[in-house]
Design brief:
five-stranded parallel beta sheet; alpha/beta; 14 strands; 2 domains; 14 helices; three-stranded antiparallel beta sheet; Rossmann fold
C-alpha cells in the first residue's frame, strides 16, 4: 500500500470517527497507533523501528488517557443533576447592551422537578418595562427603591409576591415604589450598564431614594471577570490606571468567531481532554476583586450623581472579608446576609428551596425584606 493511499485511508477513518463514532478521538488515536505499529513491523532499520514503536506507544497512551478522561467525565457528571428537570424557566431576549433581558409583558409558569419531587412550581410575571413585577405603585409613594442583582434579587424559584423586592414594597406599606432590575445570571457589570445606558433613568419614576444591590461573592466576581459562559455576550468593563472602570465592548469580542475557529473548537469539544481544557475556569484573584469593587463603586457614584440624596447599599452573600473592606473603603455600605439569618437563629444559614437547589426559599426572602425595611429604610420611613 502506497504512502498516499495510507494517508487517504487514515484521513477517511478520521473523518468517519469525528462524524459518527462515539469517543471519536479514542478511535483516531487507536487507528494512528495501529498504523505506527504496522510501520514498525515493516521497518528494516533499527532507527525506523525505534521511531515507529515509540510513536505507536505514545499514541496508545494518549488513547488510553482519552478513554480514562471520558469515563471519569461520565462518572463525575452529576447523576442527580440528570434527574432534575426544568420547564419554562426563562424567556430571555437578546440585547445589544446587556447580552440578554427579560421578555416584557410576559407571564410563565416555571416548574422544576427532582425525579417526581417538585422543587418548585411558580409564576414569573414580567411587567411592560421588562422587570419582574413589584407591588402596584401607591399614591402615597414619595420615592422609589431600586433593586439590582442576579437570580437572588430576581427571585428564582419563588412566586411574584414572594420575592425580596416585592416583600420590601409590602412591608414598607406602599411608601416606596419598587423597581426590581434583578435578572438571573446578572452581575455588577449589568447594574452599571443599566445605569450608564440610561435604562434606569428611562424606567424609574418617582426618583429613587434607595438602591440595593444583592451580591454573591465570589460568584459575582467570576461574572464581572467574564468567567461564566452566560455573560460572554454581556458588557465588559476594565480597570483604568486611575482606578476607574470603563466599558470595553462585550466579553465575546475577544472570542475567535471565524468559521475556521468555530469548526476547530467544535471538533475539539468532541474530545474529553479538549472539553477539560476548554471548560477550565481559573480562580478569581485580587485583580478581579478590585474590578468587582470598582464596578459596584462606580454604579453607586453614578446613581448618587443622578439622584442627589440617594443611599446605596450592598447585601453581600458569603462575602470575603477583603472584599467587604474594599467596598467600605470605596464608600459603599455593606450588610452581610449571613448575619441576618444568624440573628434569626438559623445557624445553618438561609432556608433554601431544596437540597438540590440552593436559591433562597420564600422564608429567606421574607427575612431579608424585614431586615431591609427595619435596618436600611427604617430611619427614613
Amino acid at each position: 500500500m502506497t504512502t498516499a493511499l495510507v494517508i487517504a485511508v487514515v484521513a477517511g477513518l478520521v473523518a468517519i470517527s469525528l462524524r459518527w463514532l462515539p469517543l471519536p478521538y479514542v478511535w483516531i488515536l487507536a487507528i494512528a497507533a495501529a498504523v505506527s505499529l504496522a510501520r514498525f513491523a515493516r521497518s528494516r532499520t533499527i532507527r525506523a523501528k525505534a521511531i515507529w514503536w515509540n510513536l505507536g506507544v505514545v499514541l496508545l497512551i494518549f488513547a488510553a488517557t482519552e478513554s480514562f478522561l471520558a469515563v471519569r467525565e461520565y462518572r463525575r457528571r452529576d447523576v442527580e443533576a440528570s434527574r432534575i428537570h426544568s420547564y419554562q424557566v426563562y424567556d430571555p431576549l437578546e440585547d445589544p447592551d446587556l447580552g440578554y433581558v427579560l421578555r416584557p409583558a410576559s407571564t410563565r409558569t416555571a416548574r422544576k422537578l427532582f425525579d417526581d419531587e417538585v422543587i418548585y412550581e411558580v409564576v414569573y410575571t414580567v411587567d411592560p418595562q421588562g422587570l419582574r413585577v413589584s407591588p402596584p405603585p401607591s399614591e402615597q409613594g414619595r420615592a422609589s427603591i431600586l433593586f439590582f442583582g442576579g437570580s437572588y434579587s430576581y427571585g428564582e424559584g419563588v412566586n411574584d409576591h414572594e420575592t425580596m423586592p416585592y416583600q420590601v414594597g409590602l412591608k414598607a406599606r406602599g411608601r416606596y415604589d419598587v423597581y426590581n432590575f434583578g435578572v438571573h445570571g446578572y452581575g455588577p457589570q449589568h447594574m452599571l450598564a443599566l445605569i450608564e445606558f440610561g435604562k434606569v433613568a428611562a424606567t424609574v419614576d418617582p426618583a429613587p431614594a434607595w438602591a440595593i444591590y444583592q451580591a454573591m461573592v465570589p460568584e459575582h466576581v467570576y461574572r464581572v471577570a467574564g468567567l461564566r459562559p452566560w455573560v460572554r455576550m454581556g458588557p465588559r468593563y476594565v480597570l483604568t490606571p486611575d482606578g476607574d472602570v470603563v466599558r470595553s465592548g462585550a466579553f465575546s469580542d475577544q472570542d475567535c468567531n471565524h468559521a475556521i475557529c468555530t469548526f476547530a473548537l467544535a471538533q475539539l469539544r468532541k474530545s474529553a481532554a479538549g472539553r477539560l481544557v476548554l471548560d477550565y475556569t481559573r480562580h478569581v484573584g485580587e485583580p478581579d476583586e478590585d474590578l468587582f469593587v470598582a464596578v459596584v463603586a462606580k454604579a453607586s457614584r453614578l446613581l448618587k450623581q443622578t439622584y442627589p440624596g440617594l443611599r446605596f447599599h450592598v447585601l453581600l452573600w458569603r462575602g470575603h472579608p477583603g472584599v467587604v473592606m474594599k467596598l467600605e473603603h470605596a464608600g459603599v455600605s455593606v450588610h452581610r446576609v449571613d448575619g441576618i439569618f444568624e440573628s434569626a437563629g438559623l445557624e445553618r444559614g438561609a432556608p433554601r428551596l431544596h437540597r438540590r437547589d440552593r436559591h433562597p426559599a420564600p422564608e429567606a426572602h421574607a427575612l431579608i425584606a424585614d431586615y431591609v425595611v427595619d435596618e436600611i429604610l427604617g430611619p427614613q420611613r
